[in-house]
């Protein structure tokens, strides 16, 4: 399958944003060793893609909420079919189908961005003054030459950490500078990739489903570690795209998690203790304010009756006298 349509789409977005920044007055030439119009074009490529994918991101959040709500039922199935993995998988798939939850939905936005990543990787990789196909994918020769010479702090955006001196000679770049800029960006890329996954997991919690938990571990540890190796072949422009995308994700997730906080799973009861606990609401730190105990009405003091034949003490004025005994 030809990917030319992706290369044309990515090139069109880049060129459109570059023309927009040029029209606004962003210098085309290098300032502080950086061609900001091209750097901003890559950054706003991210903004364009993320705006297009925002509805998918909302579906991702809803799917994660649905998966979180199903965790008690998943736990019951795991205990019920302990040791029978095949039946457990069938029962969980049936549960997901019935509740319209998709455990893979959490990875969908990332999967949809893979074509964009590949398209940008291919587009920047071919930015070399010696490339004869300058007018491919809708570029003019002037646009191609301008992008080929675009730099970030004197490191060309098409340069890579693994670029050799022969690769960088046509671009007029220094190998040490390219390695330094690319190396710093790769470390930032790894850190922000880890933080985006950690942010979501800390807010939603680890999944009970082993398959879902494995996906979470892959996102949290596997992908950042793999970037140590793959980052050396990414052009600097692609790493800028990745870092910008991660920062956008961090902000977007923070907004969504504040607006739609994740469900709080019920606490398990401790064995041997009563499970019925009063809800703690109100008061400082969620504690219920102590209610004053209603006092019982004070009982009237008991007055000892007079002994037979004894005169009453302190008789009330106007009160009735005790009746005389009949002889």
What are the key terms here?
327 residues, mainly alpha, two-stranded antiparallel sheet, elongated
Give an account of the 3D structure.
Strands 1-2 form a two-stranded antiparallel sheet. It is an all-alpha fold and 327 residues long. The protein has helices at residues 4-24, 36-52, 54-69, 71-80, 85-99, 108-125, 141-148, 165-168, 175-204, 210-230, 236-259; strands at 151-152, 155-156. Helix content is 56%, strand content 1%. Helix 1 (4-24) crosses helix 6 (108-125).
Q: Can you lay out the helices and strands and say which pair or pack?
A:
Layout: H1 4-24, H2 36-52, H3 54-69, H4 71-80, H5 85-99, H6 108-125, H7 141-148, E1 151-152, E2 155-156, H8 165-168, H9 175-204, H10 210-230, H11 236-259
Antiparallel strand pairs: 1-2
Helix pairs in contact: 1-2, 1-6, 2-11, 4-5, 6-11, 9-10, 9-11
Strand numbers in spatial order across the main sheet: 1-2
User: Which geometry do the CA atoms define?
Assistant: elongated
Q: Approximately how much beta-strand content do the residues carry?
A: under 5%
Helix-strand makeup class: mainly alpha
Mean pLDDT: 80
Cα end-to-end separation: 131 Å
Provide a brief overview of the structure:
This protein is an all-alpha fold and 327 residues long.
